[in-house]
Amino acid sequence: MKINLNKILTKGKAFYLAYDQGLEHGPVDFNDKNVNPKYIIQIAEKGKFNAVIFQKGIAEKYRKEIRKSKIPLIVKLNGKTSLRNGEPFSTQLCSVKEALKLKAAAVGYTVYIGSEYEAKMLKEFENIEREAHAKNIPVIAWIYPRGKGTKGKSDKELLAYSCRVGLEIGADMVKVHWNGKDQRDLAWAVKAAGKAKVVIAGGSKTKESVLLTEAKQAMKSGCTGLAIGRNIWQSNRPLELTKKLKKIIWN
What we know:
42% helix; TIM Barrel; single chain; two-stranded antiparallel sheet; alpha/beta
């Protein structure tokens, strides 16, 4: 089945505003302004992002604001806190049915490959992918190599493996972290993803010049786009930075 991605793409490219960090990191990333989801929705609307990424709680509580903004919604279906020690496991917290009621244009799910709980996450993803595709809803796989199984593996190997896993499990799009060191590694990973589209996660706050350079390299490597959170909404000039990144994506 070919899934329609047009609701979350513009001319085949994508720029998503990620705001699922509150569950994953706690409020440590926030200040008095960006702790308010309304501020994030305003950035998404004014910046004309392809979609905003929320966990179900914010998607439910700020449903009116999201709909008013007319920005497509991507609901993250699983999550965990940073308080738990040991092998990473991100369990499902929201169903596809719930996401559809919230008018989600797509759903996302994290799989930590290399974790001893990898099989459980892959099984949950399988069920999500089947249900979402039955409704013609795109599924984005956050594929992050973590846990004991990643020891001894190079960044290049793990990046390409992450992208390939996304393709093999049926994801329409794969969201991965890239260390920004070698563009050739990323280009190879994009090839490994085949017809599954690849978007790069923004990660923690970094210098604007570094972010822009990495964005250019990502697009030259064949990536579909970027999914950035902290580097946008922690910025003092989020809309100016958004414009610069959009020029790179749609150059």
